[in-house]
Write a structure and sequence with these properties.
Layout: E1 8-12, H1 19-27, E2 31-36, H2 45-55, E3 60-73, E4 85-95, E5 108-115, E6 132-143, E7 155-163, E8 176-180, E9 198-202, E10 219-223, E11 242-246, E12 253-255, E13 265-269, E14 276-278, E15 288-292, H3 298-302, E16 312-316, H4 320-332
Parallel strand pairs: 1-2, 2-3, 3-4, 4-5, 5-6, 6-7, 7-8, 8-9, 9-10, 10-11, 11-13, 12-14, 13-15, 15-16
């Protein structure tokens, strides 16, 4: 099943907190995050925020961002010792990050500090109980070796300059992995992640993902990866229900040479060199198909054998008159337009 993300409600630099509304938003299945962009907004409200952190579950969190021209002081975290979900991102600098070791209740941590001072930050022992981690290091090379000890981790978004990426393969309970701006490092470790269902490869550079063998991944996204031109092992993703390919200008062909019974949703977006999409008839469960800004010829595409389950089709060339004619043709053939919701 494709992961359904919770709606995120942000409360920015609050003077006071509406506890009733926060409670209702959480009961409705949302995440609620109180966020601060500068120390001048901390006031005495951080203690009130911490009271809520202690009482509410991990869907209530705190975020520190911005702090332009300042370095975020990690000692601030001593005021919210009960925080379960913490975001320290969109920050240029931060110091005293060792204070993370005092946060005994953390469930999820999101670190996006441009000038991360401590490349060994994952060595902090209290972080080993995390279930969700997002960390991107753009200046220093982040040591991922410590991830071997993160036995509870279920979701990981990692990016930038890293070493020991292979340690990710030891995360036996990982079901979601996003690799962000990680170039050329081999992906063999993915084959050890038997519970992995969601894989996103974003930015960075690599030519293919041939290292990935047969797997049970459900949701695959490849977006803006420089030099990527080969998806010939797509049949290894036998359990795939959703495939999204975006901004891959060197990709010339996508071919489904073997039956993929589970695939329900296929989206190919802004792959301007892509001229061939073949084997669609192998996708017996395909319901939704989106092809935007490619070199695929519509007439050739629409006259091939298409799955009987297919009900929603969007085909866009970015030429207004042509797209209007295509849309009219699709309507006549009984296809619905792809919903943006």
């Amino acid at each position: 099943m494709r992961k359904i993300w919770k709606r995120r409600i942000l409360i920015n630099n609050p003077v006071e907190l509406d506890r009733v509304q926060i409670g209702q938003d959480l009961r409705d299945g949302n995440q609620v995050i109180v966020q601060f962009s500068h120390p001048e907004f901390y006031g005495s409200i951080l203690e009130e925020v911490d009271e809520l952190c202690a009482r509410l579950d991990e869907n209530f969190g705190v975020r520190f961002y911005g702090h332009y021209s300042l370095s975020f002081d990690g000692h601030t975290l001593l005021r919210i010792p009960h925080v379960k979900m913490l975001h320290l991102n969109s920050l240029t600098q931060a110091h005293n990050t060792e204070v993370l070791a005092t946060l005994k209740h953390l469930h999820s941590l999101h670190l996006g500090i441009y000038e991360l001072e401590n490349s060994e930050v994952l060595g902090i022992e209290t972080l080993r109980s995390l279930r969700e981690l997002s960390i991107i290091s753009e200046k220093k090379t982040l040591n991922l070796q410590y991830l071997k000890e993160f036995s509870h981790l279920e979701q990981l978004h990692v990016g930038g300059k890293v070493k020991n990426l292979d340690a990710v393969g030891d995360l036996k309970d990982l079901n979601y992995l996003a690799l962000h701006s990680i170039s050329k490092l081999p992906l063999h470790f993915v084959n050890r992640l038997k519970k992995l269902k969601h894989l996103r490869i974003l930015l960075g550079g690599r030519e293919h993902i041939q290292e990935i063998e047969e797997n049970e991944i459900d949701d695959l996204e490849i977006s803006r990866v420089r030099g990527f031109h080969d998806l010939s092992n797509i049949a290894n993703f036998r359990a795939l229900t959703r495939l999204m390919i975006e901004d891959q200008i060197q990709l010339r062909e996508v071919s489904f040479e073997r039956e993929m019974k589970a695939l329900e949703e296929l989206s190919i977006w802004n792959c301007k060199g892509l001229a061939r999409l073949t084997g669609i008839e192998q996708l017996s469960s395909l319901r939704k198909l989106r092809i935007l800004k490619t070199a695929i010829d519509f007439d050739t595409f629409i006259h091939q054998k298409l799955p009987s389950a297919l009900s929603t089709v969007e085909f866009v060339t970015n030429k207004t008159k042509v797209d209007q004619e295509i849309q009219e043709s699709l309507v006549k053939l009984g296809y619905q337009k792809w919903s943006r919701v």
